[in-house]
Amino acid sequence: MGYMRKFLDKLAHSSIRGDKLIGIVLGPTVLLIVIHLPLDMTPDQQNLLGLVAMTLVFWVLRVFPIALTPVITLGLAVILNVASDREAFSAFSSPTLFLLIGSFILTHAMTRHGLGRRISLMVLSLPTVASSTYRIVIAFGALAALMSTVLDNGAVAAILLPIAISLSRTFSDDIEAQSGVSDDTHPLAFTVALMLMTAYGSTVGALLTPLGDASNLVGWAHMRRYNDIDVTIGLWVAVAAPIVIVLFGALCAIVLALNRPEVGSIRGARATVAAHRAKLGRMTRAEKNTAVVFVMAVVLWLLPSLAGLIYGSGSAAHTLVTERLPPSVVAILAAAALFLLPVGWQKGFTLKWDDARNTNWEPILLVGATLALGSLMGSTGLAQEVGGRLAAYAENFSAIGVYAFAAALATAFSELTTNLVSVTVLVPIIPAVAEAAGGDSLQATWTATFAAIYGFMLPISTSANAIVYGSGQIPFWKMVKTGLFVDVSGVILVAVGVHIMLRVLGIAG
Hints:
Helix content is about 70%, strand content about 0%.
């Protein structure tokens, strides 16, 4: 007893956290328990399930740095014979990582040379926007949502992140002075709300058309192949638009309620914006170069959508542009251009390699490792196994229960794997479950497809989350807490919204 008292006394006066010590013991214990449970799974599936459970324990109790945790899990996956080292780490060649790398470099250039600040001040010059912190956050989220209807959500986040950072810096001193809040160790709640709306708005808007996300296309193709109704783009938009609008309203309410800005209105905001704009002066050569690259990237990111609208989705022109200029390639080309465009004989080029070295590489590690975990869940059959068992469990539900379950399951899968894996696993299963419960297979497919795009809790849930989290302006647990509430509201709104809209449009009885 005396030894325990001494231990607790030393722990209380040390820099070692008690929850970390608990996690060091609890994580491996959970792994061993899951591995030895009498589950009807293959050894590699059960070992991987145990590793995923251990990873969640380590994340919650912060045993290792967040980005390092899934990397350690991948190493253990090799040791436990879940996969070879080549298979385990193959996701580090994912195009998503190169989209992040190119986006981070472009963001750095916009921030360093002041282009993001100039654009943000232009936005703030719009009537009534700058005077309210709430209107700034909502307007920025609406802009992200609108852009993501035609652009990849990661590309939208990459475009808007430097502008959001500049917006935050423009008003941070005024907000701190007006509110009396000054804490250099934590970002302002206004900043957190603005960053979260940048990420979440980029994801919400992607639901509006089937072209907004790859998972939309998979679900859309399944609907068109296995249902008598011709699900056109117009019909998709008609079903999705009311849901997107209502969900965006819920998103604004949740983000601002959980991350309430320190002040509601900023005194002298218009005068402050005018003064900042006057100080900017004329655009520098480096700023002009960055602007050219930024516009080029936006145009190339838009090109596949434009080709689809003009020549038709699946046409030769649309296919060519989509295959040759995916978002990741555009991001890398844009980043490369910044190292080639000169500023002057003395100053050299727009960016130097030192600028790239200063980029935050933590999100790259985090996203790469978690993508690899998601890939292993697919290749070992664990995702299909878990999805099939949960779907079988849902056979006892009513039709409404199946729809709600499909939405919840799709969202949960998207958090831990990717929305593409979620749709790929669930869309073939859920319709049959719905029919067995007396429901409609098309409604079940639509519900699962819509819900799969929503993953707001973790930095790895969407590329938009990863890019914005990489700014260092969002504490991990702020994203988890806010994202959980948004996920729950999304599940409810998608399940109810699809149910109502299909009946309003006369598609389901």
